[in-house]
């Protein structure tokens, strides 16, 4: 199933043209509106006027996690806080990382999450619950995405004492949340002599804030469930960039209409199909906090054409960069 078939099945040549147009605008926006990229591009001796095609992304300097954490948040912001719609402090392996969002950013994130949920089989007849704290903006995206799909949504919060009654009364078929939350739910059920098999849950949507989380082995008790993985990187503030089209596998389509992806081998060259490299991402329409050429530290294998019918780049997560 497709949430946005026009985009998800776009011709490659058309996609490249679209990316080039968006990249030029994104670099201009970042250079003119943020202190960090104004200085970074000046040091590199490059300007938005040098960016005409998607391939011109190579002219830009890399952005690293260390820079994201070392530089004040407002140096990446394109406008004053009074112009933002949301502020969320998300945690990664290096500590708290604040993300800012405009109304347009939130709309894009909900669109991406909706694509992921539809790919995972969610529809208007589904009943889905999510576990966690609503202060995490990525979970709000899940909430709004589920509602956009038309599913009945049960926000279960992070109070484990409330989970079993919600499970019993709502007849959930889908649970979404970080693996640690799902395990905590199982522990809460076990304390009452039950487990998930006592309920109609047949699908898990696991949110991972790091490659280490995604690559960790899953409990054997989950083997009978359909499991879809979402890479919810704190740096980008949304779980929707990587679309899972195959249950149980760490293989994803990248949302290339909104993010330009490079897969770079150790020598800096672009990986071909079947080859592995580090994933480098650039936001193409981020309004509040654009990110250009962020080295994600994710080692991925570039996959070929996909049977699902989506034409965008497909990658499989294989590990973590030694540099990270």
Question: Could you give a short description of this structure?
Answer:
With 324 residues, this protein is an alpha/beta fold. The protein has helices spanning 5-8, 12-33, 35-44, 65-70, 103-119, 137-149, 163-170, 179-191, 211-215; strands at 86-92, 95-101, 127-131, 152-157, 174-177, 203-208, 226-231, 242-244, 251-254, 259-264, 276-283, 294-303, 314-320. The protein has a single domain, classed as ANL, N-terminal domain (Rossmann fold).
Total strands: the figure is: 13
Number of domains: 1
As for the CATH topology, it is Rossmann fold
Order of helices and strands: HHHHEEHEHEHEHEHEEEEEEE
Rg value: 20 Å
Average of per-residue pLDDT values: 94
Alpha plus pi helix count: 9
Q: If classified by CATH, what would the architecture be? A: 3-Layer(aba) Sandwich
What is the 3D form? globular
CATH class: Alpha Beta
Give the low-pLDDT segments: none
Specify the CATH homologous superfamily: ANL, N-terminal domain
Tell me the fraction of residues in β-strands, as a range.
15-25%
The strand order across the widest sheet is: 8-9-13-12-11-10
Taking the alpha carbons of the first and last residues, their distance comes to: 36 Å
Q: How would you characterize this protein structure?
A:
With 324 residues, the chain is an alpha/beta fold. The protein has a single domain (5-320), classed as Rossmann fold. It has 9 helices and 13 strands. The strands form 3 sheets. A 6-stranded antiparallel β-sheet has the order 8-9-13-12-11-10. A 5-stranded parallel β-sheet has the order 4-3-5-6-7, with helices on both faces. A two-stranded antiparallel ribbon has the order 1-2. Strand 5, helix 8 and strand 6 (203-208) form a beta-alpha-beta unit. Helix 2 (12-33) crosses helix 3 (35-44) and helix 5 (103-119) crosses helix 6 (137-149). The mean pLDDT is 94.
């Amino acid at each position: 199933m497709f949430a946005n078939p026009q985009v998800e099945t776009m011709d490659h040549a058309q996609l490249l043209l679209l990316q080039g147009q968006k990249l030029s605008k994104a670099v201009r926006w970042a250079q003119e509106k943020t202190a960090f990229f104004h200085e970074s591009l000046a040091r590199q001796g490059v300007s938005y006027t040098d960016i005409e095609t998607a391939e011109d992304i190579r002219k830009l300097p890399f952005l690293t996690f260390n820079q994201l954490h070392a530089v004040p948040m407002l140096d990446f912001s394109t406008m004053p806080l009074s112009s933002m719609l949301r502020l969320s402090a998300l945690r990664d392996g290096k500590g708290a990382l604040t993300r800012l969002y405009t109304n347009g950013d939130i709309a894009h994130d909900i669109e991406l999450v909706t694509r992921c949920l539809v790919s995972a089989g969610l529809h208007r007849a589904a009943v889905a619950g999510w576990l966690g704290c609503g202060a995490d903006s990525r979970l709000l995206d899940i909430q709004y995405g589920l509602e956009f799909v038309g599913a009945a949504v049960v926000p279960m919060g992070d109070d484990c004492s409330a989970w079993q009654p919600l499970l019993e009364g709502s007849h959930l078929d889908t649970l979404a949340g970080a693996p640690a939350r799902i395990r905590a739910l199982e522990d809460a059920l076990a304390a009452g002599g039950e487990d998930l098999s006592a309920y109609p849950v047949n699908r898990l949507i696991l949110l991972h804030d790091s490659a280490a989380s995604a690559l960790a082995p899953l409990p054997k008790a989950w083997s009978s469930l359909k499991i879809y993985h979402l890479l919810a990187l704190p740096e980008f503030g949304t779980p929707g960039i990587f679309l899972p089209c195959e249950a149980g596998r760490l293989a994803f389509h990248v949302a290339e209409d909104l993010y330009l992806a490079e897969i770079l081998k150790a020598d800096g060259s672009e990986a071909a199909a079947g080859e592995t490299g580090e994933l480098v991402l650039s936001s193409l329409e981020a309004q509040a906090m654009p990110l250009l050429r962020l080295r994600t530290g994710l080692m991925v294998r570039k996959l070929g054409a996909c049977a699902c019918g989506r034409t965008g780049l497909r990658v499989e997560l294989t590990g973590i960069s030694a540099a990270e």
